[in-house]
Amino acid sequence: MSPSPQSELVINGDYYTGQNSHRQSAELRPGGAGILLKTTTEERALAWQDLKISPRIGNTPRYLHLPDDGVFETTDNDGVDQLSRQCSGNGFARLVHRLERHLGLILIAVLVTAAVTGLTLTYGVPWASRVIAYTLPDTVAQTVGETALHSLDDTWFEPSTLSDGRQQALLNHFAPYLGQVGGQQLRVEFRDAPVIGANALALPDGTLVFTDDLVNLAEQDDELVAILAHEIGHIEYRHGMQGMVQSSLLFWVLVMMTGDLSAFSDPTIALPAFLMSMSYSRDMEQQADDYALQTMLSHNLNPMLFATIMARLTEEDISTQEHGESENNGYLLELVLSSHPISRERIARFREASESHFNAGN
């Protein structure tokens, strides 16, 4: 059927004057150089440019906005489409409507959106986090580190139970490795953290925290030096700041998707967000391992020291799980805070380096 001539086009609907909520039955039709609006009480002549037509969304009612806040509502979408074709300046709206109804383009748009989102989260956000982490001033890392340690002291950390003599002996043993790295002055802190267990972590401000359980697990102090070198690697490459920035960017993505800004003011979300940033990626762990291995070789320390204590940590984790402690909050927190997740590949790498540089007589 061919479209009706302009003189035959009549769109029926309801008219709201904008002055009150009273609804009037009305009709809209092209007339002369404009549009005629006819109700039971009046007839108005409107210019084309006075008419603003809402885009079509399925078969939902359309709204035609008139001067003086008047609104004409109708379910005659086909009639409105025909009217819009006669109005200037509505080409874009018609294009959008056609695109919205094209199933193939909708599927392509969904796939493209999913691909772009995946690539952004997988590559874009980590790359941006790395760039931002290196451009942020050192004072930001200092503030973040101090705040993080204060928060951890208020929640899961307790004062160390190690004697003053033991702590000082370890600090003296660590001294040759403690300098300025990644723009931060390194320092070591000891804490008792039963809820975390044997662990160590590096804060962005250069603070290296060793738990009492980790110190007690070591059979010789050079094993702790191996762990120390690994944690220093995280500071050298600013992994803590990268993780924090990445968490923030992902959080912003979540906020933009949900439109909920209230979470930023919730401390129960802010602290876990930082703690999650302490769980490093595989690439970050490899960088820290590279740094630790080079440090140990340059100080003539056998890489087997690192492999040995990591293997011992593996045995402890297995024992913890076998005793059912993996279901408590402490084990979950350990998974979040773990800055040195253990793998057979990592242990094997240091064992091979030991055989290559020491057993071979190099």
Automatic annotation (TrEMBL):
Recite the UniProt cofactor note for this protein.
Binds 1 zinc ion per subunit.
Q: Where is the Peptidase M48 domain?
A: 190-352
Task: Name any cofactors this protein relies on.
Answer: Zn(2+)
Q: What Pfam families does the entry give? A: DUF7092, Peptidase_M48
Q: Which Gene3D superfamilies match?
A: Metalloproteases ('zincins'), catalytic domain
Q: Which UniProt keywords apply?
A: Hydrolase, Membrane, Metal-binding, Metalloprotease, Protease, Transmembrane, Transmembrane helix, Zinc
Segments passing through the bilayer: 103-125
Q: Residue ranges of the DUF7092 domain?
A: 11-86
Q: Which family does it belong to?
A: Belongs to the peptidase M48 family.
PANTHER family listed in its UniProt record: METALLOENDOPEPTIDASE OMA1 (PTHR22726), METALLOENDOPEPTIDASE OMA1, MITOCHONDRIAL (PTHR22726:SF1)
Q: What protein does this entry describe?
A: M48 family metallopeptidase
